[in-house]
Amino acid sequence: MDTRFSGFLLALACGLFAASLHAQIYRWTDQNGNVHYSNLTPPKSVTATVVDPDAKEVPPAVQSSECYTVRCQGERMEERQRRRDDAEARAAAERIASSPKQARGLEFRRYISVQRGMTEGELLGIAGEPDLKADHGVAIAAPTTVQIGRHLSTAARTGLVMKTYTYLPTPADPFTTTVTLVGGRVSEIERTRKF
Fold first, then answer.
1. Is 85 in a helix, a strand, or coil?
2. 168 and 133 in contact (C-beta within 8 Å)?
3. Domain range summary for the chain, segments of one domain joined by +
4. Residue 108 and residue 173: Cα distance in Å, rounded?
5. Quick one: which of 18, 29, 106, 110 has the fewest CB in 10 Å?
C-alpha cells in the first residue's frame, strides 16, 4: 500500500471521527421526568439518544416564528441567560451605588491644621470633603448701623449662612469632628471620641 494513500486514509478517518464527536448531541430523561440535552457523554446509568441538531421535532406553522430545532432553542436559551446576567450586573451596580459611603474621618494631622477664621475653601483643602453636611439656614449677626437718610442711621442685623461639616469616626481615628461655618468661615471646631 502506498504511504501517501495510507496517510490520506488516516487523515480522513481522523476528520470523520472528529466531525462525528463534534456533531453529537445527547438527549435523555432523568428519573424526575426532566429532559436533558448535552454535547457531553451522559452518565452510564441513563439511556440516551443521539439527536440531530437541525432536526425538527414538530413541523412549524407556515407563518410561524417558533423555534423547533435544538440549535435554535439552545441559542434562545443562551440569549435569555445573557439577558439574565446583564440584569443581575445592573442590579449589583445599583446596590453598590445606593449603599452608604464609607466614613473617611479626619485624621489628627489634618485636624490640628484647621483653625478658626479660615475660609470654607481652606477647610476643604486641608480636611477634604466631609462625611456629613448640614445647612442650618441663616445665623443672625450682632446689630450694626445702617444709614437710612442724610442725617439718620438705624440699627440693622445681618444674616450669615450657617453650615456644619461632620467627619465621622473610623477604626484608625475614633473621633467625630464637627466644624461649624458661619458666613463661609470656620466658627467652631469640636472633636469628641465616639468609640
1. helix
2. no
3. 3-97, 108-193
4. 8
5. 18
Cα–Cα distance, 133 to 120 (Å, whole number): 12
Q: Are 118 and 110 a contacting pair, CB within 8 Å?
A: no
Q: Which three cell numbers mark 142?
A: 450682632
According to CATH, what is the number of the domain 108-193?
3.30.1450
Residue 79 CA to its chain's centroid (Å)? 22
What whole-number distance in Å separates Cα of residue 113 and Cα of residue 127? 8
Q: Considering Cα of 116, then 122, then 128, then 130, what sign does the dihedral take?
A: positive
pLDDT digits (tens, 9 = 90+) for 120-151: 999 999 999 998 898 877 766 666 666 666 67
Helix (H) or strand (E) holding 128: none
Q: What mean pLDDT do residues 167-184 have?
A: 89
Q: What are phi and psi of 14, to 5 degrees?
A: -65, -40
CA pair distance 163, 187, nearest whole angstrom: 10
Of 130, 79, 143, 70, give the one whose Cα is nearest residue 101: 130
Q: List CB contacts of 144: < 8 A, sequence separation 6 or more.
A: 155, 156, 157, 158
